[in-house]
Design goal:
The chain starts with a helix and ends with a helix. It has one domain (2-216). Helix 3 (90-123) packs antiparallel against helix 5 (132-167). By secondary structure, it is mostly helical. It is built from seven helices and no strands. It has helices at residues 2-40, 57-84, 90-123, 125-128, 132-167, 172-188, 195-216. 83% of the residues lie in helices and 0% in strands.
Length: 217
């Protein structure tokens, strides 16, 4: 019995730390992806595709980092749910888990679209740039990231902030700040070029608070 209790105690101590480390890893990877894409691909979704001729090495690196960011985010969600345990509210837990999975699905889909554009360009460099297929793919990836993914991330932030207030998962000011930022992104993400930065920075803040509390205890 003593060995079993010791194992359970160690597992309970590891879970918050695992959530924090996974959240920080996700944040750092997504910020790197954002930076690599921003220095390589113009923000204007209507540009004709001249960036394809300038080299796609940074874009390829960013696309290869996306799966690792997704795995870290899944670990973050799972570790948080494990920490909440019986305190988890079924309604908010469903929205929390569902919005997290939707977010990842759209992130992966948008990355796949950009990857398909690059492969198609290398197959026919003279035909893809400024073509209908290019503009469709570019607009599709842009819409998924800047509209649907950001709004889904806002829902994830709202539900996580609610759970944090109910359970004391994070300091109250972090949860309240999450509400405020999520509402702004939910309404105006389409008009804010920096909106994609907010979500990983918020996850980083939540993870840092969890890690700090874990070491403090």
């Amino acid at each position: 019995m003593a060995g079993q209790e010791s194992g359970l105690t160690r597992a309970q101590l590891r879970t918050p730390r695992a959530a924090a480390v996974a959240g920080i890893l996700f944040s750092v990877l997504l910020l790197i992806v954002y930076w690599l894409m921003r220095i390589s691909v113009p923000a204007d979704p209507l540009e004709p595709g001249a960036w394809l001729h300038g080299g796609t090495t940074y874009v390829a690196v960013a696309l290869n980092l996306v799966p690792f960011a997704g795995i870290a985010f899944l670990w973050f969600i799972g570790a948080l749910r494990d920490r909440l345990g019986t305190r988890e509210d079924r309604f908010f837990a469903t929205v929390f888990f569902g919005s997290g999975l939707l977010l990842l699905a759209m992130l992966f889909a948008a990355a796949a679209v950009v990857g398909a554009i690059i492969l198609a360009f290398h197959a026919a460099p003279g035909m893809l740039a400024d073509s209908t297929a290019f503009h469709f793919g570019r607009a599709l990836a842009y819409g998924m990231i800047n509209i649907y993914l950001i709004k889904t991330a806002s829902v994830f932030m709202i539900t996580t902030s609610t759970i944090a207030i109910q359970t004391g998962l994070t300091p109250r000011w972090v949860a309240v700040g999450g509400y405020a930022v999520a509402v702004v992104l939910l309404i105006g993400s389409y008009y804010l070029d920096w909106s994609l930065l907010v979500f990983p920075l918020w996850v980083f803040l939540v993870s840092a608070c969890i890690l700090r509390d874990q070491y403090a205890s």
